[in-house]
Amino acid sequence: MRRSSWKIRILIGVAIVGFALVKKCNNTEENPYTGRSQHINMSAEQEIAIGLQSAPEMAQQHGGLYPDERLQAFVDQVGHKLVNNSIARETPYKYDFHLLADDQTINAFALPGGQCFITYALFSQLNEEQLAGVLGHEIGHVIGRHSAERIAESNFWKTATMGATVGAGDIGNVVGGIGQNTLLKNGRGDELESDDLGVLFMIQSGYDPNEMIRVMEILKAAAGPNRVPEFQSTHPDPENRIEKIRESIAKYSNQQ
């Protein structure tokens, strides 16, 4: 009886993992803007809705919006210049750029669907071209559909982990660990892809892409000597990003 029960658990576990794999394969599509194959389980409209719904809460976590309308208008001007001069204008996303009041946290990020944010702490250290580099990078995250891809990846591993847990107890923890490592690795890839797109958008908009390197130097200095080693971080080390940015500059400059 026990042996029969054990076999049933294994079969159920295998079936759940198999279902997750089939579903993942069926959700594979080519990103029309980057040409990269991705596992996505939501539409652009859903991405936009998630971003719009989440934006107020994200702003609140950083002290709300910066109260200077003149500076906000400047961020909007640079952001929309990048959109209007790049492939971003052909996407269905609704791009909004938000200057956050947080004057302590050096950060910028994007929500799915086009909501882009930069803290005043970072903004205050940048000139216009460096700001364009940061915003171009965040636009790259939107076009790359990185949030949607992470959501789909996370859902896959949750289902696979459940199947492994049903079938073999503690093995589920191993599968869960593999999922986390996969997300971590892809996260670094997302950053590099966004850097690459950011360089392209800067060139297309008439900005000096070398200023993106200066942004990396600012981020490196802000992190200090005790920054987290690359293998423990979701972001590549600034030195590695600089090397890749130089490659992107050479690539796109030769295409002009």
Low-pLDDT segments, ≥5 res: 12-25, 156-186, 228-233
Summed over residues and divided by their number, the pLDDT gives a mean of 78
* Number of β-strand runs: 5
What fraction of the residues are assigned to beta strands by DSSP?
5-15%
Q: What structural class should be given to the helix and strand makeup?
A: mainly alpha
Radius of gyration: 21 Å
Strand arrangement within the widest β-sheet reads 3-5-4
Helix content: 55-70%
Shape: globular
First-to-last CA distance:
72 Å
The structural domain count equals: 1
Q: Return the string of H and E elements.
A: HEEHHEEEHHHHHH
* H/I helix tally: 9
Task: Give a structural overview.
65% of the residues lie in helices and 7% in strands. Strand 1 and strand 2 (37-39) form a beta hairpin. It has helices spanning 2-26, 44-61, 69-84, 120-123, 128-143, 146-168, 171-204, 211-223, 238-255; strands at residues 28-30, 37-39, 96-100, 108-110, 115-119. The strands form two sheets. The protein has a three-stranded mixed β-sheet with strand order 3-5-4, with helices on both faces. Strands 1-2 form a two-stranded antiparallel sheet. Helix 1 (2-26) runs antiparallel to helix 6 (146-168) and helix 8 (211-223) runs antiparallel to helix 9. Residues 12-25, 156-186 and 228-233 have low confidence and may be disordered. It has one domain (2-255). The chain is mainly α. It is globular, with a radius of gyration of 21 Å. The longest helix has 34 residues, at 171-204. The protein is built from nine helices and five strands; from the N terminus they run αββααβββαααααα.
